[in-house]
Amino acid sequence: MATLTIRNLPDDLIERLKASAKAGHRSMEQEVRELLEACYQQKSDLINAIKNSWKELPESPAKDMDTWRNKGRP
Fold first, then answer.
1. pLDDT surpassing 70 at residue 60
2. How far is residue 37's CA from residue 31's CA, in Å, rounded to a whole number?
3. How confident is the model at residue 51 (pLDDT cuts 50, 70, 90)?
4. Which of 9-13, 21-25, 33-37, 60-64 is the least confident region?
5. Which of 1, 26, 25, 31 is nearest to 13 (CA)?
6. CA–CA gap between residue 11 and residue 18 (Å, rounded)
7. What's the distance, Cα to Cα, between the start and end of the chain in Å?
8. Contact 17/28 with Cβ under 8 angstroms?
9. Per residue in 63-74, pLDDT tens?
């Protein structure tokens, strides 16, 4: 596993992390790991949902695309 060092975090952020970790009976390090995992999992789930919804869209024939592209042009 890799190690990540983050410098110059604001004191109020550290305090919030400590409080959240304490409330969850975790170390601050574990709290940060879980926050990162949750954040990136959510984004991954969202990206996959978007990709899946694209697959469900009907394909437009090329002439329809030309009509749309030229709409409003003289």
1. no
2. 10
3. confident
4. 60-64
5. 31
6. 11
7. 61
8. yes
9. 677 777 777 766
Share of the chain above pLDDT 70, in %: 92
Tokens of 15: 């305090």
pLDDT at 44 over 90: no
Q: Residue 19, CB half-sphere, CA atoms under 13 Å: how many?
A: 6
Rounded distance between C-alpha atoms, residue 72 and residue 28, angstroms: 58
Do the beta carbons of residue 44 and residue 59 sit within 8 Å?
Answer: no
Could you tell me the CA-to-CA distances from 2 to 5, 28, 62 in Å, in that order?
10, 17, 49
8 Å CB contact between 34 and 28: no
Residue pair 31/17 in contact (Cβ under 8 Å)? The answer is: yes
